[in-house]
Amino acid sequence: QLQLQESGSGLVKPSQTLSLTCAVSGDSISSGGHPWTWIRQPPGKGLEWIGFIYQSGNTYYSPSLQSRVHISMDRSRNQFSLKLTSVTAADTAVYYCARVRVPPGSVVSYYFDSWGRGTLVTVSS
Amino acid sequence: SYKVTQPPSVSVSPGQTARITCSGDALPKQFAYWYQQKPGQAPVLVIYEDSERPSGVPERFSGSSSGTTVTLTISGIQAEDEADYYCQSTDSSGTYPVFGGGTKLTVL
Q: What's the pLDDT band for B23 if we cut at 50, 70, 90?
C-alpha cells in the first residue's frame, strides 16, 4: 500500500528557506513511472499546486512560485524534497506531497491519487 | 493564468441530491477531477477523468461533463458527505494543474 509522509521544519523565519521531505513507501519514485508533486493549502483557503518532479529528475513548477522553488529527489532513500526560498507569512500553509497520475491520451492531463497527511509550516519571526 | 471556478457553498438536506459545478474554458478538452476534503484531513480523490470513480468511493458519487462545465453529483446525501470539494483540471496546453477554489457542502 502506497504511503507518503511529509517531514521538516514546522517553523521558518521570514526571508529564510522552507525545507520539507516526503518519504515514499509502497512505490518507487525512480522507477514507478509516476511523477511526484508538492501541493499546499494556506489555513482556511484552497489548494495550490507547487511543482512536479519526474523519475528522470526533470522538474516543472507553478509559474507563480518558480523563482523560489526547487524540488529534488533522493533515489537511494526513495524520497523527494521541497525547498522554498525567501519565505513570507503568505507561505504559511499545510504542505502535502502526492503521487501524480498522467492518463494516457493525446492531451496531457494530471491528477493526484495518493496524498500524504500534510505538514503545517508557519512562517513567523 | 488559467482558472476553474466553483460555487463557494452548496447546501442540501439528507437523502437529497447535491450538484457541484466547475467551469473552465479548457474543460471541453481537458479532464476534470474531484477531491473530497474533510476538516484536518488530506484531500481524497473521488472522481477522475470526468466521470470515473476510484475503487472504494461510494456509487452515490458521480461526475459528468458538458461543454465548459463539469458537475459532481452526490445522490442520497449522508451526513458524512459534508466536506469541502475541489475541482481540479489542467490548462489547455497540458503544462500545469489548477484547482478550483473549493465548494463547502453543508448537509442541513
A: very high
